[in-house]
Amino acid sequence: MKSLFSIAEIRKIEHSLAETLPPGTLMQRAGEAAASAARAMLSGRKILLLAGPGNNGGDALEAAAILAGPDTDLDAEVTVLHRPGSAPPSPETQKALARARASKAHFVDALPLGRDWSLIVDGLFGIGLARPIEGDMRALVEAINALGRPVLALDVPSGLDADTGAVIGPDGVAIQATRTITFIGNKPGLHTFEGRDYAGQVQVAPLGIDPGQRPPAGARLNEPALFARHLAPRRHNSHKGSFGDVAVIGGARGMAGAPLLSARAALFAGAGRVFVAAIEPVGAVDFVHPEIMLRDAQDFDSGAATLVMGPGMGDSVTAMRVLFKALEGKAALVLDADALNLIADSPDLQGRLAQREAPAIVTPHPLEAARLLGVTSAVVQGDRLAAARELASRLHAVVVLKGSGTVIADADGAVAINPTGNAGLATAGSGDVLAGICGSLLAQGWEPREAALGAVWVHGAAADRLVAHGSGPIGLTAGELPAAARAVLNALAR
């Protein structure tokens, strides 16, 4: 299991270890891990280590002492920009400073001009930073980012919230890292919201701590192991009824494309039969995929189908009527787009959704989640995990909070962050495709949480597959995703 530890959880682990390990052990191990990571990234001779006032700075100083120490075989110039701060350092940091000063490292108190750094190591601030970076430190971060050189961040890029993935402060700054080596355990903020852009590649250094010594984490990274039990190859002795029915309800005037995209995704993700029940007529046949059956939403009998409600549905009286009927029924639901906006405007519909016994997955983007919660999208983005948990609890549903590092949350508070996907998914119709995959997996008998985890992972992996084959991320279209998702699903099943 790929656990993600909050700052509070990491602090508890550190406190527990402090009772059994000699003082300074974790800092020394962190310095060794940082030095090793720096060696692996180094492609020249000039290393700049930024050491801030806290223990994160102590980690950087330990790394400097190793890289420039008497036993090193590294042919490099090691420079340390030390910003000690006004408060006294911890005893461990004091010892790390003494070791670094006793090495061949060159200490400076300002950023040297005109140096072509091969690597910059960020040890300015760690996970304990709770306020925006300001003043001279802000100017230093901005200057480092402007250099455009490879950066190794220690534990978390300075200025980034390790819990939320937000840059700290409404107009805050953070180090733009090429790679982050994070200590003891992985952090959720490195994998969602702005964290994916600032952290770069993430490497976990457990610092010699056995996984059994760590308590269970409150979040995890999504991975196929979490839904693998549903990935068995199909039996030869099966038929279309073996794989369920999906009905996509949507398609108001001028928005017929959204339910068609969703239906095609459901078809390519393996549903046995797929319908589009349109608010406005969309024609007699989908000539691209005539396997999809087209119906009128007002008199459509969904039977035992899983319903995907919302793609292009609009806010008409008809849309409200079919949504109310679905919420009163016993079908498994995927609620997206306009269905979520209608529910957000109606406390009655929210209550009906929360009281349903049948499975439901809701797939809001941040603005839709904000409407459902009665807050702003900035509040949702400011703590995506908390927002997803709150929404799942209120609606008694599995929540897929879309965005960079999509968050999947259960009503019981379990949370996962999805690592697949790229900027190509920021395109019209991408969410409709995701809703269709969710509905398809539900129809095939997947449990709601696993259907959400699997759909989000496959959806992102489909975009990654397309980019790997030269399609995107610029110009990637939602219509390309279903076939790529089919390839990903079949590869997983094999």
List the helices and strands and how they pair.
Layout: E1 3-4, H1 7-18, H2 25-41, E2 46-51, H3 55-67, E3 77-82, H4 91-101, E4 106-108, E5 119-123, H5 135-147, E6 151-154, E7 179-183, H6 195-199, E8 201-205, E9 219-221, E10 245-250, H7 257-268, E11 273-278, E12 293-296, E13 306-309, H8 317-328, E14 333-335, H9 337-344, H10 347-355, E15 360-362, H11 366-373, H12 377-382, H13 384-395, E16 398-401, E17 407-409, E18 415-417, H14 430-443, H15 448-468, H16 481-493
Helix pairs in contact: 2-3, 3-4, 7-14, 7-16, 9-11, 11-13, 14-15, 15-16
Give the key terms.
alpha/beta, Rossmann fold, 2 domains, UDP-N-acetylmuramoyl-L-alanine:D-glutamate ligase, 7-stranded parallel sheet, 16 helices, 494 residues, 11-stranded mixed sheet, 18 strands, 38% helix, elongated
Class inferred from helices and paired strands: alpha/beta
Percentage of β-strand residues:
15-25%
- Which topology of the largest domain does CATH recognise? UDP-N-acetylmuramoyl-L-alanine:D-glutamate ligase
Strand order of the largest sheet: 1-9-18-17-16-15-14-13-10-11-12
Instruction: Please give the largest β-sheet.
Output: 11 strands, mixed
What is the helical fraction, as a range of percent? 25-40%
Please explain how this structure is put together:
This protein is of the alpha/beta class and 494 residues long. It folds into two domains: 3-218, Rossmann fold (3-Layer(aba) Sandwich); 224-493, UDP-N-acetylmuramoyl-L-alanine:D-glutamate ligase (3-Layer(aba) Sandwich). The chain is built from 16 helices and 18 strands. The protein has helices spanning 7-18, 25-41, 55-67, 91-101, 135-147, 195-199, 257-268, 317-328, 337-344, 347-355, 366-373, 377-382, 384-395, 430-443, 448-468, 481-493; strands at 3-4, 46-51, 77-82, 106-108, 119-123, 151-154, 179-183, 201-205, 219-221, 245-250, 273-278, 293-296, 306-309, 333-335, 360-362, 398-401, 407-409, 415-417. The strands form two sheets. An eleven-stranded mixed beta sheet has the order 1-9-18-17-16-15-14-13-10-11-12, sandwiched between helices. Strand 3, helix 4 (91-101) and strand 4 (106-108) form a beta-alpha-beta unit. The two termini are 21 Å apart. The mean pLDDT is 96.
